[in-house]
């Protein structure tokens, strides 16, 4: 009987090892020679398309650095936001690098590496409301109409913090902000970096409440079950933050707006 249990444990160990090897994303990436990056373009300054049709942005540059560190090529897979987690889970790409906020709900479906940046939700208003709305909480009124991007943390924040307001959902952030620019809706609720750029480009038409009213760490997401990949990503992040690469890219995309002229 003792020999039987020893043999059984050995068999289970081999099965577990075989499963782990089969589930090791890093090995698959190295064997393939390509890391596939999933994102949703249009989220400034994280992932965008320039006039030449090339992908550019903070996440794009970090992804290229990641591929270089692995010794592989990089392939970008542009995916609609509401389907980006299902696409990851069905192996359309290896990792989501798309300014995704870490939430308990998302963490039930995917694993997150350590946060690489922390942001929060902010509000861009119609210019006419600049003197009336002094804080985000002032929008919690039935007379106000808010624009949000469907499926985002801005969408969830708007429902939570402004339950009395009327919320209009849009497939893209560009469609949502356009309604505010055109004066059809009162405010756009979205992430700080994007809204900061949006407001600076349209200072004559909108007002910006720049103080975030939520705390949102952004992180890279991968399929559950591969701790080796998470370990590698966390060590990579520590390396680029320690050697100056991260600071250089942050300055390029968040402290300068020269890249705006290259966009479509």
UniProtKB/TrEMBL annotation:
Organism: Parendozoicomonas callyspongiae
Name of this protein: Transporter substrate-binding domain-containing protein
InterPro entries xref list: Iontro_rcpt_C, SBP_3_CS, Solute-binding_3/MltF_N
CDD domains for the chain: PBP2_Dsm1740 (cd13629)
One Pfam family it belongs to: SBP_bac_3
Signal peptide: 1-20
Location in or out of the cell: Cell envelope
Span of domain Solute-binding protein family 3/N-terminal: 34-257
Keywords (A to Z) from UniProt: Signal
């Amino acid at each position: 009987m003792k020999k039987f249990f020893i043999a059984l444990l050995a068999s289970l160990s081999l099965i577990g090892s075989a499963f782990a090897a089969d589930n090791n994303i890093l090995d698959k990436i190295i064997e393939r020679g390509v890391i596939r990056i999933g994102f949703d373009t249009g989220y400034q300054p994280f992932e965008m398309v320039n006039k030449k049709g090339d992908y550019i942005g903070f996440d794009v540059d970090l992804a290229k650095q990641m591929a270089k560190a692995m010794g592989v090529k990089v392939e970008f897979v542009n995916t609609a936001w509401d389907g980006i987690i299902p696409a990851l889970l069905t192996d359309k790409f290896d990792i989501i690098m798309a300014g995704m906020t870490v939430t308990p709900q998302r963490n039930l479906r995917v694993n997150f590496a350590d946060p690489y940046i922390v942001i929060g939700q902010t509000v861009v208003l119609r210019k006419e409301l600049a003197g009336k709305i002094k804080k985000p909480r002032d929008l919690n009124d039935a007379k106000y109409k808010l624009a949000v991007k469907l499926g985002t943390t801005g969408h969830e924040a708007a429902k939570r913090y402004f339950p009395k307001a009327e919320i209009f959902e849009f497939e893209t952030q560009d469609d949502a902000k356009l309604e505010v620019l055109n004066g059809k809706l009162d405010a756009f609720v979205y992430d700080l970096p994007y809204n900061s750029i949006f407001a600076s480009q349209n200072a004559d038409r909108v007002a910006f409440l720049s103080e975030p009213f939520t705390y949102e760490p952004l992180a890279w997401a991968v399929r559950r079950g591969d701790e080796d990949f998470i370990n590698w990503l966390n060590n990579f992040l520590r390396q680029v933050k320690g050697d100056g690469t991260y600071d250089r890219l942050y300055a390029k995309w968040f402290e300068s707006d020269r890249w705006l002229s290259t966009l479509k």
